[in-house]
Specification:
127 residues, four-stranded mixed beta sheet, globular, 20% strand, alpha+beta, 4 strands
């Protein structure tokens, strides 16, 4: 997998996002929460479609929300190569839960922990 986060890898389908919240499972690594669901994706060469979200309730300014989302996407981009889905496709949404703006180092550390838990959950459930 390349260290890019292209358009095909971004979760944009409203229908899939709604299904994710209804049927998906959740794991946490403060300040991040991941909701994931095994689902068929429109691109056969992509194993995971990932989206990021920051609550408007906790972060009123769009500038702040956009900064946090940029940090989350960068942390995901740098660490996504550690995930092995074994041929299964997943839709994933990562939600920022803290009311404070954390540093990139904290978000990156939480992302690594979250992706490790995701790997353990998915490999453990398929074997």
């Amino acid at each position: 997998m390349k260290d890019t986060y292209g358009t095909k890898e971004k979760l944009k389908s409203k229908k899939l996002i709604d299904t994710l919240f209804i049927e998906g499972r959740s794991i946490k690594a403060f300040p991040l929460r991941m909701v994931f669901l095994e689902a068929p994706l429109p691109y056969p060469d992509i194993a995971i479609q990932c989206g990021v979200s920051v609550s408007k309730r906790n972060h009123k300014l769009a500038v702040t929300r956009n900064r946090i989302k940029r940090l989350m996407r960068e942390a995901y981009r740098l660490n996504k190569n550690k995930i092995d889905t074994k041929g299964t496709t997943f839709a994933v949404l990562i939600i920022y839960t803290s009311r404070d703006v954390r540093s990139f180092e904290e978000i990156n550390k939480a992302m690594r922990k979250l992706l490790k838990r995701f790997q353990d959950e998915t490999v453990g459930s398929t074997t």
